Hints:
Strand content: under 5%
Helix content: over 70%
Structural class: mainly alpha
Number of domains: 1
Organism: Nocardioides bigeumensis
Membrane topology: Multi-pass membrane protein
InterPro entries: EmrB-like, MFS, MFS_dom, MFS_trans_sf
Protein name: DHA2 family efflux MFS transporter permease subunit
CATH class: Mainly Alpha
Subcellular location: Cell membrane
CATH superfamily: MFS general substrate transporter like domains
Amino acid sequence: MSTQSHHPAVSPPLKHQVHATDDEQAVARRPWTVLALMLAAQIMVVLDVSVVNVALPSIAADLHLSSSNYQWIVSAYVLLSGGFLLLGGRVADLFDRRRVFLTGLTLFTLGSLTAGFADSALALISARGAQGAGAALLTPAAMSIVMASYTGRQRATALAMWGTVASMGIAAGVLFGGILTTAFAWRAVFFINVPIGVAVAVGVLAKVRFAPTPTASRRQLDLSGAVLLVTGLITLVYAVESTTSHGWTAPHTLAAAGIAFALLAGFVVNERKVESPIVPPTTWRIRSLVSASTVMAGVTGAVVGAIFLSSLYLQQVLGSSPLVTGLQFLPLAAFITLGAAAAAKALPHVGAKKLISLGLVIATAGALVLSLVDSDPSYVADVLPGFALLGLGVGPMFVAISVAAMGDVAPEQSGLASGLMMTGHEIGAALGVAALTAAAGDITTRAGIVAGSQDAFLAVAIGLVALLVPTFLLPAHDPATTPAAHGHGH
């Protein structure tokens, strides 16, 4: 019921309130401090998907990375984050969300500190995995805190801001990575998280209330399902990555793909047999959540893969320095932000479904423009128009996806639902980088990057068009925004 999904669950006295006027007055007085703290943490999580991209050549020279290590420094983070997000969402729903958030924040911050001191590829990839595991606890707990802290129009605004962070953070990460790498060397891209993590932890202890755990709903956690899911996804990405060096039909690739399929099939069987699966069967019946999460996976894969390839293209084909490369991504971040801001205002009037469809069309045009770059490119004439269209398309989509996904979700399921949505975000990122790297082929030479980028961006365009199918399955109206608009009389 929509009335249930708009109950503020942060303080027990509000649980049984039935008077709308009292509820609206309480909402009106609710400060944005909690949202600011959650967004600060989430910005770190999203930035770290791409903040290492521009730093990769410097890291490679310092730690003597092989070409395969490039992808795993990105993939280790998003795979562990995405693979454990569903378990993290379940934990956030069953236990005190503040404690779960602080546990994830601590693990993420310690992983960042360890990554900053890493002296080998294995140490850095392992630390990136620890960051990802911390993010898997932090993100759904943060969304759960936001959903419990706000209701009505405030919640719709908070979700739109959350979507804006998700959309612009990846592009902004490249900019910050370039600035930090140039000013302080590559280790700064990890060290910067430490003081931010400490400051957020102090703020949360002061401003976010302890939420008692409902003992009746506490059940055994599905750790076996989580392990099967993570190992299956890691093996799948390894299989996709292997196509670059071994080919699509090599025994090595086919064996990895077969193992990945067996592990993921084992996860599906496990979920049907265990008493408390990571994703309760009823969750899969929430059409808006499942469809939006599917679109989230595809869009994020396209964007993260595009940024990964573009950062190599700008440095190795155009000859840009890390700082200049970061600045060249600034228009992409600006157009994403512009698109997201426009979408936030249009969302109550247009609806998420139409915004996502429009965004897919615009982003597809941007990918096609980027697929036309040749061996004698100009940033302003060839790259910038593609970035502009891609950003204007992606910005509205992330805002609309966040609202569409959470629209039919009750507060007590918000951690799990955000975990499913952000699983699409992270797994899409990992598979996007792996798939586009495979589509591009040899990206170690200038000629290889030029030819590979053309093929990869054409694949991005085809993938974005295909996402119109799950978009059509979204409901025409957004339950999260419509009642709020009616309830306030405007």
